[in-house]
Structure formats: C-alpha cells, structure tokens
Amino acid sequence: MKTNVLNFSGGPGALPISVLEKTQAALESVDDTGVSLLGMSHRSDWYQELNAKAQSNLRELLDIPNDYEVLFLQGGGSLQFAMMAMNFLKSSHQTAQYIVSGYWSAKAPLEAMAQGQVEVIWSGESEGYRRLPTMDDLKNRVDPRAAYLHYVSNETVEGLAFSNDTTPQAQTLICDMSSDLLSKPIEVERYAMIYAHAQKNLGPAGVTVVIIQRALLERAQPHTPPILNYLAHSNANSILNTPPVFSIYVLKLVTDWLIQDIGGLSKMAVINQAKANCLYQAFTEREDFYKIHAKPPHRSLMNIAFSMKSVEQERSFLQLSKQQGFLGLEGHRSIGGLRASLYNAVSLEACEELARFILDFQSV
Amino acid sequence: MKTNVLNFSGGPGALPISVLEKTQAALESVDDTGVSLLGMSHRSDWYQELNAKAQSNLRELLDIPNDYEVLFLQGGGSLQFAMMAMNFLKSSHQTAQYIVSGYWSAKAPLEAMAQGQVEVIWSGESEGYRRLPTMDDLKNRVDPRAAYLHYVSNETVEGLAFSNDTTPQAQTLICDMSSDLLSKPIEVERYAMIYAHAQKNLGPAGVTVVIIQRALLERAQPHTPPILNYLAHSNANSILNTPPVFSIYVLKLVTDWLIQDIGGLSKMAVINQAKANCLYQAFTEREDFYKIHAKPPHRSLMNIAFSMKSVEQERSFLQLSKQQGFLGLEGHRSIGGLRASLYNAVSLEACEELARFILDFQSV
Predict the structure, then answer these.
(1) What percent of chain A has pLDDT over 70?
(2) Cβ of residue A135 closer than 8 Å to a chain B Cβ
C-alpha cells in the first residue's frame, strides 16, 4: 500500500500500514465470512467474538486487573467529561476536583459544572501551560472525600506529559489518557478509571475505551439515563445499543499489531522514547532557531509543540515540509506555532527523516 | 468486489458495492490526497469540505428547508432519546409525550424519565405491537403545550411503519427515522426534529444525523453539558470534538450514490415499494405457511417480521436459507421468529431471489 508515512498529525493520527491493508480486505469479507465488515450485525456471533477479543487484547497489553471492566463507548473524551460527572458527581454531595494543565484538561470541568460542585485544585493557565504541577503544588490540595480527581496524562496541544513520578495520587483518580494510552506500560491499579478516545494510538475516531474499577462502577448514579450510565453499558457488555463496529474492529487490529508485530507496550515504549529523543535532540542542536513550548522535565513523548522566531519562518517551514511529504505539522489553533505528533504508528525512520529536515531547514 | 449481496440483516445493514469499493480505495488515499481516510485530521480543509458536502447531499435529497440545521452526532438513536429530554424537557415545566408502538419507541421514554414529566399517549404493547395508532386513537391526546411529541416512523423489530396519512401531528413533533430515513421522500416541515442513526440506509454505525429546526435549537437548555447540547454542536458546525470521520465519509458516498446512481428519493421509493411488494406477495401466496407480524395497513417497506407454524420449521428455514447464501433472516431476540430487512442497498434482484426461496421452501 502506498500511503503517506510522514503523517505527524495531532489526531486522528496515522495507523500502521498492515492494519490499513487488513481493513481494506475486511470491507469485502471480514474474517472469511464472505460478508463486508460494514454489513455485519452487532448481534452476530462474529461480533461477540470481536468484542471479546478487543477487550482481551487490551487486558493483555495493559495488564488490567480482574476487578476492572473494559467498555467501548462513543462520543470521544468530551462525552466522558460529562458522563463521569453525571455518574459520580451528581447527587453525591461531594466535590469533583480537577487539575487544569492544558487545553484539554481545561474543558473537563466545563462539561461537569451543571452536575455539582467542581474545584480546580491547580491550573497552569497563568504560566501559559508550559509545565505540570509538582508534588509540592498538589500538597494538601487533594481532598480524600472528593467524588474524584481528574487529570489528563498527556496534553496533546501543549506537548506536556506526566511521568510515573509526577502522576497525581487520589482516592478516586480518573485519568484521560486519550493521547498516550497504549504508548507505554502503565499501572492501572493507580486509577479508579482510565479512558481514551481511539484516534491517537488505538484506532480510528468513533470509539472511546473506558477501563473502570468495579467499585467505581457501582457508584454510578441510578438516575443517569441508561445510555449515559457506565453500569448499564457494563451490564450489556458494551452492546447496549449498536456499537461503532468498524472502529472497534480496527482497534482490534491495532492491538493485534502491538502484541504480535511490536511485542507489547514495553517494546513500544522503547521505540517511542527513541523517536522523541531524536527529535528533541535535533531541536536542542538548533535551539537558537526553534523554541519548544513545554519545559524540559514535563515534555511529552507523543506531541512536541514548538515555534520559531517569526510567523513567516513558521509558514516557510510548513510550506517546505509539505513539499517534502511531511503532513500535519501545523500547531493547534489555540496556541499556533507548529507541532509534531509521534503516535505509535509513526515510525522511527519517519522521525529521523523529520529530524534531518529540522536540522537542515534554512528559512528564506 | 465479491461480497454477500443477499444480506437481509436488520442492521447494521448492507451497503452498496460501489460504496464499499470507494471506501477500500480511500483507506489508502482519500480523494487523491495521498493520505489514508483513517489518518486525516478533522481540522483539515479536506474534512471541512467533506462535512459541508455530506450536509448538502442530505439537504438536496430530503429538500430540507433553510431554517433547519443538519448535525452529525455520535451515540446512536439511544443517545438522542436522552439528549432530546436533556435539552427540551428538563427545566421546561412541560410534559414530553410519547407514542409507544414497538420495541424501539418503548425505549425512548425510559431514557427521558430522569429529566422531567413523561407521558405515553398511546401504546400498542397490549396488542403485541401489531398495529399503529389511528388518528382516532390519538384524538384529544396530543397536548399542544407539551415539550414535544416523540414517535418512531418505522419499527424495525415488528415491521410497522407510519404512512404519510397516519403520521401524528403536533406542535413540536420529533421523529426517530433510524430505519427509514432516505428510503423515500418526506415532508421535513412537519417536524421540529428528525434523527436517524446511520446503520440502516445511511452508512456504517457510528454517526447519527439530526435535522433540527432553528426554533427548537434555540430552546436547548443552557445548562446541558456542551457535548450533549444541540446548540453547542450546531454552533461548532458538528466539529465540537473529533467527529466519526470514517462513518461520515461513507455516509457522503452513500448519499452520492442515491443522487447519482439511483436518481433521488422518489426513485428510491419506487424501488423499495417493488422490493417489498414482491416479498409481501410471496408471503400472501403461502399464507397457510407464513404469518406476518404486522397488520396489513401498517406494514413496513423496510422490515418484514414473520413467523412459521413451529420453531422447528423456522430453524429449518434459517438453515436452508443460509446454505443458499441468505444472511440475517433471524428475527429480533425480543419477539423471535424471522425477519427480512430491505434497506436501500438490498437490490430488487436479491428480494426476488428471497421471494422464490419463500415460495419454494418446504419444511422437512
């Protein structure tokens, strides 16, 4: 297949070519059934198996403990912002706490406000979202009686990421891992709930993975409409209504690829570290020319937001990079500048090619 | 492309082969961009054009008046059941009225209950959902002060459909057309809101089309979380967060096919009428053998639910039909029996082949 492999888009991100090829074949006949993937009933035995396999692949890759459920929902991360508050904040007489560390985490409390008391315990806004909170910043701020503490592990727009050492601690910790789930191993037991939309590392837009501890599930507010109720989805094994079959099928292929071709998340993490290293090194060699948005200790391996001395230079960088086949290097419209996103399917070779471009680029 | 064309599944339903072929090509490079459909950013110019074209195709096919907006949402019909109540019933001090004429319309008030006062003005449950309400049944029941009146135009499970003459009338009429939108022309101005998930006649599961009058949009309750607020989606032109790009792309191809290959909805309606006629005729010729669930004046052109004299006969019918390549003829698990779904992409030839099978079948 000849498709652009220099796709550094912020998302929907690139997918592995072998996955695209298998998806092509499945549009004609999926898994030797003779039936198109797009004509398959979600009540078929075939779909039951797909649903089970996609879940077990995620359990294997992330080493998910038995007391967690894996759900496939719709609506992206934004619907999770609203659903968590409808299920766990509303009628709880508790406060929901939020860390606001960038564009996306700032949106989460706005979707929750109508359901109850919302408290932002730390915000990086006044510093332009260039760093994450330290343990000291959060000290005495986390309330053990809160409904939950929500944060975003990787800020896609600003290129900030929490590390193992800086991960917040809370009684009920909920994390939006939309842009780094499956990029490295994680300790699921730290969290009451983890969720991620698919369109970075998991598959195509249209499905959202939720990994939720049973103890939290059981707190779901019973008056939440069933279609917005985590417990109802769990009871129906994520087939409460027609699921986004196509997106879940591709997610299954992507997780097969991670297990069989890559060899698991530890190996994926080594590759992702190498990819990011080669780019950060290129930027550092020319630090007179490029400015990285995020401060060093909090830099993401998934997204590098950077800028140049002038808008003209940036425009010229974008134009020339496009001519050379690079794609998706525009910065997010909220902060401008440029951005390279290095999701799982972006190869080390593609990153090396971009690093050479960064080193060689001379503005006109 | 060699894919099963005898797919009579209740949904996700079959799609036209030419659409599947174009989708295959787009997985490698969509619209000559060199980029995979699954790696395309929803903030690209390409996506802006796709979004506009999918909307304008729907406007053209359905002759949608200018004071209606076309939205692309996620979550299927079930999320609409909840959203309409969150937006138009909650805090309104009004009652929301419902017609319960089958499996799906019975679910709608359950998703709305937590938001306010819900009233079922007619239910076919005690009659086993074999007929729809007449004008007399509804007389004096429809409250002009109600937040809205909700009904389902085509009951997929039971094979019941409202006709032009039996369509309910109300101040604020909301209709779930999930299983018959785009199967025939409709008068959009009769409705304050029409919605349909894609996986019958519109495209693959994962996107839901909402056609909503501006006057209703403006009634959206401001405290609804933005991601569940119709007005917020409309203000963002359906790109409030990452849309299900794949499903919307295929929907665009399906609507292209309806315009260019079929020649519009009047022509599609003629074909659909012929398809249904040939099957109903076959059943009638052998009415000693097959029993159609729905009473004659309310029979659907999209779904025919039928049964035989014994479960053994039905099992034998299913087994033999599968051997001959027919697919998806199982009845819905809620009523059992058998069902043939005749969505747009099921050809007249496929229906004729099924009619022959129905006429020839001898139970063992």
Answers:
(1) 99
(2) no
Contacts of B229 in chain A (CB under 8 A): none
Same domain, yes or no: B9 and B146: no
What is residue A364's predicted lDDT score, i.e. its pLDDT? 56
Q: Is A327 on the interface with B (CB under 8 A)?
A: yes
* Last-in-domain residue among B230, B261, B292: B261
User: Out of A9, A111, A243, whose CB is closest to B39?
Assistant: A9
Q: Pick B328's closest partner by Cβ from A36, A41, A204.
A: A41
Tell me whether residue B139 is one of the annotated catalytic residues. Answer: no
Q: Decide if A242 touches B, using CB distance below 8 A.
A: yes
Yes or no, beta carbons of B38 and A12 under 8 Å apart: yes
The total number of structural domains in chain B stands at 2
Phi and psi (nearest 5°) for B83?
-65, -40
DSSP letter, residue B14: P
| Calculated CA dihedral for residues B82, B83, B87, B91, nearest 10 degrees | 20
Task: Provide the CATH number for the domain around residue A49.
Answer: 3.40.640.10
The 10s digit of each residue's pLDDT in A258-313 is 999 999 999 999 999 999 999 999 999 999 999 999 999 999 999 999 999 999 99
Note whether B228 and B298 are same-domain residues: no
User: In this structure, what CATH number is given to the domain that contains residue A340?
Assistant: 3.90.1150.10
Interchain contact B5–A (C-beta under 8 A): no
For residue A77, the chain B residues in CB contact (below 8 A) are 241
Asked if residue B286 and residue B300 are part of one domain, the reply reads yes
Nearest to A4 among B4, B35, B246 (CB): B35
Beta bridge partners of A97: A119, A149
Whether residues A23 and B7 touch (CB distance < 8 A) is answered with: no
Positions of A marked active-site: 104, 176, 200
Q: Among B144, B75, B124, which residue's Cα sits nearest to residue A233? A: B75
In tens digits, chain B (364 residues) has pLDDT values of 888 889 999 988 889 999 999 999 999 999 999 999 999 999 999 999 999 999 999 999 999 999 999 999 999 999 999 999 999 999 999 999 999 999 999 999 999 999 999 999 999 999 999 999 999 999 999 999 999 999 999 999 999 999 988 999 999 999 999 999 999 999 999 999 999 999 999 999 999 999 999 999 999 999 999 999 999 999 999 999 999 999 999 999 999 999 999 999 999 999 999 999 999 999 999 999 999 999 999 999 999 999 999 999 999 999 999 999 999 999 999 999 999 999 999 999 999 999 999 999 986 5
The last residue of one of the domains, among A240, A261, A282, is A261
Q: By the CB < 8 Å criterion, does A52 face chain B? A: no
Q: CB contact, 8 Å: A32 with chain B? A: no
pLDDT of the residue at B121: 98
In this structure, the answer to whether residues B25 and B35 fall within a common structural domain is: yes
Q: CA separation (Å) from A11 to A179, A213, A346? A: 9, 28, 12
Same domain, A208 and A236: yes
Residues of A in contact with B40 (CB under 8 A): 9, 12
Write the pLDDT tens digit of every residue in A123-155. Answer: 999 999 999 999 999 999 999 999 999 999 999
Interface test with A, best of B242, B248, B249, B343 (most A CBs within 10 A): B242
Quick check: is B104 catalytic? yes
Among candidate residues B203, B77, B100, the one with its CA nearest the CA of residue B158: B100
Based on the domain organization, do B184 and B267 belong to the same domain?
Answer: no
DSSP B226: G
Structural domain that includes position B283: 2-18+263-360
For residues A309 and A215, state if they share a domain.
no
Q: Are residues A257 and A272 in the same domain?
A: no
CB contacts of B79 in chain A (<8 Å) are 74-75, 227-228
Say which of B176, B184, B257, B275 is annotated catalytic: B176
Can you give the pLDDT at residue B256? 98
From the list B71, B120, B92, the residue with the least C-alpha distance to B243 is B71
